[in-house]
Write a structure and sequence with these properties.
By secondary structure, the chain is mainly α. The protein has helices spanning 28-133, 136-158. The longest helix has 106 residues, at 28-133.
Length: 159
């Protein structure tokens, strides 16, 4: 036998292929599974966001149902108060005008009183002068004379 030397060829070296990362490394089945998982997670988040929005809307509606009537009631009270204040202001203005007219009348009255006092002072002075001119001694003597004349008459008529 001849030596047949067969050359043993080393097995082809399989070069390690570059590892593919992410979606490229997955086969179709793995891609579908990953896509389904992601869709479930997204669906769950979407449902939570929807429920949160409904809860927030319900809270806002309840708040508005409570707050709006109170606000309207408060605005009505404010309107009544402003109307009352306006009426009070009008009345106060009328009273101030009336008071001003009264003060003007008082000024005129004070001027008239001053004139009356001056005139009466003159009259009182004249009356005092006339009283001072009266002779009380003569007046007393006249009264005694009248008494002496009237007394006998009184005694005569009283019996």
């Amino acid at each position: 036998m001849s030596e047949v030397t067969e050359e043993i060829k080393p097995a082809e070296e399989v070069k390690p292929s570059k590892k593919k990362h992410g979606l490229e490394a997955m086969d179709d089945h793995e891609l579908l599974l990953d896509l389904a998982r992601e869709q479930r997670r997204t669906s769950r988040y979407t449902k939570m966001i929807g429920a949160s929005c409904i809860g927030i809307c319900a809270a806002v509606c309840v708040s508005l149902a409570i707050v709006v009537p109170q606000v309207l009631k408060t605005l009505s009270n404010v309107n009544k108060t402003v109307t009352s204040a306006y009426t009070v202001a009008e009345n106060a203005s009328a009273m101030i005008e009336s008071a001003q007219e009264s003060l003007d009348g008082i000024d005129t009255m004070i001027e008239n009183v001053d004139t009356v006092v001056v005139e009466n002072t003159q009259s009182v002075t004249e009356a005092l002068n006339k009283i001072n001119e009266v002779d009380f001694e003569t007046l007393n003597k006249s009264i005694q004379d009248l008494h002496s004349v009237v007394e006998p008459l009184a005694q005569m008529f009283s019996h």
